[in-house]
From TrEMBL:
<dbReference type="InterPro" id="IPR044861">
    <property type="entry name" value="IPNS-like_FE2OG_OXY"/>
</dbReference>
<dbReference type="InterPro" id="IPR026992">
    <property type="entry name" value="DIOX_N"/>
</dbReference>
<dbReference type="InterPro" id="IPR005123">
    <property type="entry name" value="Oxoglu/Fe-dep_dioxygenase_dom"/>
</dbReference>
<dbReference type="GO" id="GO:0046872">
    <property type="term" value="F:metal ion binding"/>
</dbReference>
<protein>
    <submittedName>
        <fullName>Oxidoreductase vrtI</fullName>
    </submittedName>
</protein>
<keyword id="KW-0479">Metal-binding</keyword>
<feature type="domain" description="Fe2OG dioxygenase">
    <location>
        <begin position="167"/>
        <end position="269"/>
    </location>
</feature>
<keyword id="KW-0560">Oxidoreductase</keyword>
<dbReference type="InterPro" id="IPR050231">
    <property type="entry name" value="Iron_ascorbate_oxido_reductase"/>
</dbReference>
<dbReference type="GO" id="GO:0016491">
    <property type="term" value="F:oxidoreductase activity"/>
</dbReference>
<dbReference type="Pfam" id="PF14226">
    <property type="entry name" value="DIOX_N"/>
</dbReference>
<dbReference type="InterPro" id="IPR027443">
    <property type="entry name" value="IPNS-like_sf"/>
</dbReference>
<dbReference type="GO" id="GO:0044283">
    <property type="term" value="P:small molecule biosynthetic process"/>
</dbReference>
<comment type="similarity">
    <text>Belongs to the iron/ascorbate-dependent oxidoreductase family.</text>
</comment>
<dbReference type="Pfam" id="PF03171">
    <property type="entry name" value="2OG-FeII_Oxy"/>
</dbReference>
<keyword id="KW-0408">Iron</keyword>
């Protein structure tokens, strides 16, 4: 039986909390068999899980610094942010609206020095490079482990669709998405992620997922030092549906304005990858 949702209280409001598995990054890097089985179960059942990265202290420090970098970027004037707007490109640059904003930077662009970082974050170049580099190592560790559990007696691997030096749209994306004064103003944005995996770091309640076994919605708790990992549509397709791309949405459990930042790493396959089973 699937684990039941638990309860939490947020400003006197009781909410359902999703039962996410916690995968220990250190054990996964050591190819621990029990941890590999936990990961397989989490990816094939709910399609959302935590990666506990607290043993990787330098990476966790980079994540904390990324929150500050994100805040500094979005506190600029709209005119300054629009200098980073890239027309007709969904994977690059600044996008924004009345109550939100995002900045996306492709790993390939950083790796091959194709673009310059926005002026306001250039002093943090080393932190941004470090976050992208170790995030990429984490997702490659995850797909190597999933491949081993999916095809134990085969040389087939998800890495064949994610060769590091082939063109792809893996990216760092940071968000400003403040909590709003009125819950009625929060629009519906239910979706699945289109890539292979997403790593999300946030310090506030903001993600709801649809539990596949009963179609009810539950909140994802933000935990320090933990990445919230999402299985995307590409991984579901490549695995013949064995791994689950879960419907989810960005929302808030209670009313009241509060700034909210998120730091994500979108792991995407090589650009010519077909959405078909391997």
């Amino acid at each position: 039986m699937p684990a039941a949702a638990t309860k939490a209280v947020v400003e006197n409001t009781e909410i359902d909390v999703a039962p996410l598995e916690v995968i220990n990054l250190k054990l996964l890097l050591e190819d621990d068999e029990a941890e590999r089985l936990k990961l397989h179960h989490a990816a094939s059942s709910l399609g959302f899980f935590y990666i506990d990265a607290r043993n990787s202290t330098e990476y966790v420090a980079d994540v904390e610094q990324m929150y500050s970098i994100t805040e500094r970027y979005f506190m600029q004037t709209e005119e300054a942010k629009l200098r980073d707007y890239v027309e007709f490109d969904e994977f690059r640059g600044y996008k924004g609206g009345k109550n939100w904003g995002s900045l996306e930077i492709l790993r390939d662009d950083i790796l091959h020095n194709k673009v310059s970082l926005p002026n306001v974050v250039q002093p943090d170049t080393a932190t941004i490079h470090g976050f992208i580099s170790f995030s990429h190592e984490i997702v490659h560790t995850i797909i190597a482990s999933l491949s081993k559990s999916l095809w134990p007696d085969s040389k087939k691997s998800l890495k064949d669709k994610h060769r590091p030096h082939e063109p792809n749209n893996s990216s760092l994306k940071v968000y400003r998405g403040p909590m709003l004064e009125n819950l009625a103003d929060v629009g519906d944005n239910t979706h699945t992620d289109g890539g292979t995996l997403t790593l999300l770091f946030t310090d506030k309640w903001g993600t709801q997922i649809e539990l596949p076994w009963n179609k009810e919605w539950a909140w994802v708790e933000a935990r320090p030092g933990h990445a919230i990992v999402t299985v995307g549509d590409t991984l579901q397709a490549l695995s013949s549906g064995k791994f689950h791309s879960c419907r989810h949405r960005v929302s808030q459990p209670v009313a009241g304005f509060e700034e909210r930042w998120a730091v994500t790493y979108f792991f995407r396959p090589e650009n010519d990858t077909a959405m078909a089973p391997m």
